[in-house]
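Fig. S4 source data, part A: sequence.
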Amino acid sequence: APITANAITGNNSICINGTSSLSTSLPSSSTKGVWSSSNNLGTISSTSGLTTIYNGKNAGTYGEARYTVTDTITGCTAYSSRTITVNPTPVVPTITYAPGTPNPQAGAPTGSFCANRTFTVVGTPAGGVWSSTGVLGVTTPAGVVTTGLITGAGSLKYTYTSAAGCSNSRTMVGNVFVCAARGVATNEKLETTNEFSMYPNPAKGFINLNVETLVGKGSIVVTDLYGKSVKIQNLSMGTNTVNTSNLSKGFYLVSIITSEGKTTKKLVVE
């Protein structure tokens, strides 16, 4: 007669890099079993014992953990399985200034803010949560930031969580300075440009693009020398990381495109 493996219990919906604790029991005709995973959506932390941890690695709806038991008398085997959905991580959100925002950086060093300013930042996709550290204060969920009168370091963080419960975030950092002595009006309009810094160049696996100010939406476009787009992603204020590990060695053009126009720089991928 065939042996029957008992059911596996545990969370069947996790995120990439998330875990699920799985457990089962032995049938009376077996003294031990072995855990395994049946595809590349996840891995098993331990193959022995009645419990294990399933680690989500790749997004998909048919991740499967198995527990195989062997009849101690006949040598017949059987397994039970638990199907697990591994949900994708959302794209890294973007942070921009709201249109019409007074310039909170006017009169401050590059990448910093003036004290006693109020401005609005916008996170995309919508529906995320704002948080702040240090001397920057943010109103959740409106994205209204007040620098106050205290100088020092601070950061703004926008976290977006998908319907499946998976999260990703973007953080913008900067110092707060007293700018009144510089004679800059607090209602000065935000001046935007398409200037950006790019490093490392040559690139080995990734590049960072740093954008000081951005109003509205923007894009990063990487093209080869024939004009073919090989990579496109959303642009955000602060540091944007672009993965170049899947690009062939050679020369490329990296552009940022906003309502202010287009700026392009040359890139070497090694």
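Fig. S4 source data, part B ends here. Residues 181-186 have pLDDT under 50 and may be disordered.
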